[in-house]
Amino acid sequence: MNNYATLDHLPDLSLSQMDLARSLTFLTHFATGMAWDRVASVSGLNSAALLHSVYKFTAVEGATYDLFSTSYFDPFILRIFDSQGNAIVANQESDDGSSIYLSGVSYEQDVIYNWVAPYSGTYYVEASWNQGNYFKYYSLQIYEDKDTAISTISAGEGVANLNAGKPKPSTHGLTGDDIIDAMTTGYKWSLDATRVIDFSISSGFNGEYWKSPTEVAASLKAALATFSEFANVKFNDLGRFEDPAQAALAGSEINLSLDSEWTFFSAKTQWARAFFPAPSYSQTPYTDAAGDVYLNINSKANTLPSYSPGSAGWFLLLHELGHSLGLKHPHDDGGTGRPTLSDIGFDSLDIDWATIMSYNDEAFTNLVKWDPATPMVLDALALQYLYGPNMSTHAGPSMHVLQDKDLYTTLWDASGTDTLLLNLANEGWTIHLPDIQLSSSVNTLVGLAAPTDDLTLSAPSSLTWLLGNMENVIGSAYDDVVHNNGLSNEIDGGGGVDQVVYEDDLSAFQIKRTPKGVEVTDSVGITDTLQQIERLVFDDMGLNLTVKATASTLPGSTVTRIMELYIAFFNRIPDADGLEYWISQARQGLSIDRIAETFYAAGTQYEALTGMSNSMQDADFVNLIYRNVLGRPEGADVGGLQYWSQSLESGASSRGTVVSTILTAAHGFEGDANWGWVANLLSNKVTVANTLAVDWGLNFSSPEQAITQGMAIAAAITPNDTDTAIELVGLPSNPMG
Predict the structure, then answer these.
(1) Is the residue at 602 inside a domain?
(2) 638 in a domain, yes or no?
(3) Which domain holds residue 41?
(4) What is the distance between the alpha carbons of residues 320 and 437, in angstroms, rounded to a whole number?
């Protein structure tokens, strides 16, 4: 008879529903300020209602669970069923969570709060999401708090659970893969079919004991779980023992213990020590010492201010467990003649945010934050080589929330179409979607995500390595930068001025405006779908996707006059970002003459390119404007030079008003039999400027390039030809509408 009630008024699950239910896997939950230990989730994007979706998960007797179902409109159903398919818990509308906002869009939630699992084993959850025919986000998240769970460890010492695995210490040779060889010792656990390594904690050989053994055991279990996320290895908790020898006798491969007599330390100040999974440690210094970890209780390691994820205490535990699983320091040969990161030219990655095995920590004075919370990128690759990748981690479509947590993590996603979500970020981020294979023997692709401002720091406040195939991004309310990876990316920039970066020249892509944004198609036909993206960046140039809309907010004559200022002062075509800036200044009330004065000041910063300087004489200035606007290589005629020089000297005119007047005069030549070409040349330069800077939104790779390339384009324009100048740019064949 069950020790819990069933909801007999609700329909049971069918055998077919239970057979087809997808499994949800619990992973460590790192958010600070929350009681949850682990989270299991599923998410995606869909435009239709998703009805009666059934998932299964494993719960622990006595543990407390909070379930959140999210969709665009109020979700229809959220229910929990036991292993026989009987309904046991159902969402009550009175428990519904408040609306949440993702990238500025409001979503509704169904919630089941504080459900306590009545037994350990399999449960099913049914969710129905209401998207209302809108292509929107949906998710189911199950948060677990195991502090209330019924303990499987007895009050006394001894084995709490049965020995599950029979791994053996073993050796492996050099691989010829520089990254793998620089990170591994040549030792590993040879696993049996269960893929299980048993672990435990124990008192020391000299009477040392843990003051909070339950807390220590929970930390060890959580730390090992982070390794399982990447590698095909499972960890089984055997409980607590009187000393390491007793733990080994019970079948524990990794035992965490204490040492106050420096029995296992080469220096009294050494914080901790772990034994590699080497066959030689099967007999010494005691039977089955391989894999065991010791904390030096007379060292600083025993009094660290925090042992939470992201702290120095947690980093220490991850580091020693790395040794237990066969990883070495990147700065030494591991005692087995292996190369260092320096040997293979990767000195810059010998740092804590690249590997938990490094001794280098730019934020070493802060013992509470800015340290790894999981194995880092090099560790994950090495673990996947040693034990194979865990292909169940985030299998299927997944939504991953990125935010600044003052710690470093690695996110491995085994399969499915995945979305990185920045809706909780409080600053702009840069995301390099995974597209680099660092290891020649592990085909996992690598990328990176971090707050943009942190990328210039030696010790970033937050950083997440991205491993696997990840496709989509929903940006923050701030300025984000996303580097595409050629996997048909769907990117919604959210708020701010957002950029998508492509690793090729603009001419290699086709760009198409759509009602929702822009589609970018590469040379092999892979198309990215972009929304709320303001800039595209290519190897040789970039595109401003907002300048056309900005230009439409001013009279066309004003925009034309600003473009003519570029021609008059620099004889160049404007870049889109610069043009948009001056359009915005004009919208705020800055006069054309004032803008012209600022142009002159800007030109003096690039004297070698523009010919302008702070010491430039009035006559030289007038000659320059005549050459640029009126197309006269020799400069002004005698009368014109005298007139404008005197006007400037007397103060009757400023350099800005001189330019505006000469520009107006140039248009007056239109249709003139002798001088009509002057007006035609100026009009053609404006036409090209409008095509490139407004219609295309063309930018160049640097201010210097904007000047030199803009001048080269302008120089190719004649009174009768604009095509030659546009062809110089090498734009894609399709016009961007």
Answers:
(1) yes
(2) yes
(3) 15-148
(4) 27
- 589 pLDDT exceeds 70? yes
- Of the candidates 312, 315, 408, the one whose C-alpha atom is nearest the C-alpha of residue 365 is 312
In whole angstroms, what separates CA 162 from the centre of its chain?
Answer: 41
Residue 47 has pLDDT above 60, yes or no: no
Got the DSSP string for 101-155? EETTEEEEEEEEEEEE-SSSEEEEEEEEEE-TTS-EEEEEEEEEEGGGSPPSS-S
702 and 607 fall within a common domain = yes
pLDDT of 77: 85
> 711 and 601, same structural domain?
yes
Model pLDDT, residue 430: 98
Asked if 712 and 586 sit in the same domain, the reply is yes
CATH number at residue 247: 3.40.390.10
| CB-based contact 14:22 (threshold 8 Å) | no
Residue carrying the six token digits 């085909």: 443
Cβ contacts of 240-243, under 8 Å, gap ≥ 24: 240/153, 240/157, 240/158, 240/160, 240/200, 240/201, 240/202, 240/213, 241/157, 241/158, 241/159, 241/200, 241/201, 241/202, 241/203, 242/157, 242/202, 242/203, 243/202, 243/203, 243/204, 243/205
449 touches 421 (CB < 8 A): no
Kindly state the tokens that stand for 345: 């030219």
Residue 499 · residue 447 · CB < 8 Å:
no
**CA–CA separation, 170 and 190 (whole Å):** 6
Helices (H) then strands (E): counts for the chain: 17, 35
With contact defined as beta carbons under 8 Å apart, do 155 and 162 qualify?
no
Pairing relationship of beta strands 254-259 and 196-202 according to DSSP bridges:
parallel
More confident residue, 516 or 371: 371
Rama region for 426: left / alpha / beta (φ>0; ψ in -120 to 50; rest): alpha
User: CATH number for the domain including 136?
Assistant: 2.60.120
Q: Is the dihedral of CA 159, 161, 164, 165 positive or negative?
A: negative
Cα 39–Cα 43–Cα 49 angle in degrees, nearest 5: 135
Claim: this prediction has a pTM higher than 0.90: no
Report the alpha-carbon distance of residue 212 to residue 198 in Å, rounded.
21
Kindly tell me if the per-residue pLDDT of 151 is higher than 50: no
Band the pLDDT of 389: cuts 50, 70, 90: very high
- The average pLDDT across 116-132 equals 85
Residue type, 34: M
Report the distance separating Cα 570 and Cα 256, nearest Å.
71
